[in-house]
Specification:
Blueprint lengths: L2 H10 L15 H10 L1 H15 L9 H20 L9 H23 L1 H4 L1 H6 L6 H27 L12 H25 L3 H14 L7 H8 L3 H7 L2 H13 L13 H26 L3 H4 L1
Helix pairs in contact: 3-8, 4-5, 5-8, 5-9, 5-10, 5-13, 8-9, 9-13, 9-14, 13-14
Length: about 300
């Protein structure tokens, strides 16, 4: 067959759309079903992220512990001892580490998720995958690191003779769900926006730093309620889902404060409402992601 005949044969072929050209019109459940169909690739991306992060490192995954433990040491010595923040907070180290563990999970999901699309430019330009797998892979690697830190937290409570074997441990599950759903929602949204506005990843770093101090990690919620009074300002502060998750972690693992700590009323109900709002945001942000993903290859 001559070249002319081949071109004519190709011209007669029906055009088939491959990839995500209809991504903007695809439903949320269809998008998640497509991601589920690529779960093996998602697992490979998670393992790749974990391996590449500590590639050629002598300590490897131990770095997942060194950073939070260093933060704990700084907060415990500088804020707890030097600034006397530990007064009135028994087992201050456990209190701080519980909050850091919760906040660290959210922070890593957001920071790594925001840059996930840009960091995978080569793959996005060469092959088609549901684009959501890239921020989801960042969420998966963050959860792996979180699991390691959670083990250290539990071992620390046992070492201090205060294991979290109480009914309050139930607060751990809704708190974790709130962190995961909000972290995933914003990771998906920001990963798409960052493709077009590269300043977003630097803005996220600043906002995460502010969020750390806007959450009761190194100070108690009681201090905030005393300073703000029981009014609208306190309600706004408490409604922050990260604040609720941090309080849930502290209530679950910081058993020394079971009799003395003060928590907002209906903490479990607040966590449930936050989780529902997070699910709604995840659906909305995924729709935004679907509409933005069509021009990823060109923008990158």
């Amino acid at each position: 067959m001559s070249a002319h005949d081949r071109f004519e044969a190709i011209a007669k072929q029906k055009l088939e759309i491959v990839g995500s050209a209809d991504g903007a019109r695809k439903g949320v459940f269809a998008s998640f079903a497509e991601v589920f169909g690529q779960r093996e690739m998602l697992g490979l991306l998670i393992r790749r992220d974990l391996k590449s992060r500590y590639k050629d490192s002598a300590l490897g995954f131990l770095w997942t512990l060194i950073r939070p433990l260093t933060q704990l040491l700084i907060y415990y010595v500088v804020i707890g001892k030097f600034l006397s923040a530990e007064r009135g907070i028994p087992d201050f180290a456990i209190y701080v580490f519980a909050g850091l563990t919760a906040y660290g999970l959210f922070s890593e999901m957001i920071s790594s998720g925001t840059s996930s699309i840009v960091a995978n430019t080569g793959l996005i330009k060469k092959i088609y995958l549901p684009r959501e797998v890239f921020p989801l892979a960042s969420v998966g690697s963050a959860l792996f690191n979180f699991g390691t830190q959670l083990i250290i937290l539990v071992l620390a409570t046992i070492a201090l003779g205060a294991p979290p074997i109480t009914p309050d441990l139930v607060y751990f599950v809704p708190s974790l769900l709130v962190l995961v759903v909000f972290g995933t929602a914003f990771a998906v949204l920001l990963s798409a926006v960052n493709v077009y506005l590269r300043d977003v990843q630097y803005l996220v770093e600043v906002l995460l730093l502010l969020l750390l101090w806007a959450s009761p990690v190194v100070y108690s919620w009681k201090m905030v309620s005393t300073a703000l009074g029981h009014g609208l300002a306190l309600d706004i502060y408490t409604s922050n889902p990260i604040t609720l998750a941090v309080l849930g972690f502290q209530k679950a693992f910081w058993t020394a404060g079971a009799k003395t700590a003060v928590y907002p009323d209906e903490l479990m109900l607040r966590l449930g409402i936050a989780f529902i709002i997070g699910l709604a945001l995840l659906v909305v942000f995924q729709r935004v992601f679907s509409r933005l993903q069509g021009n990823f290859a060109q923008a990158l």
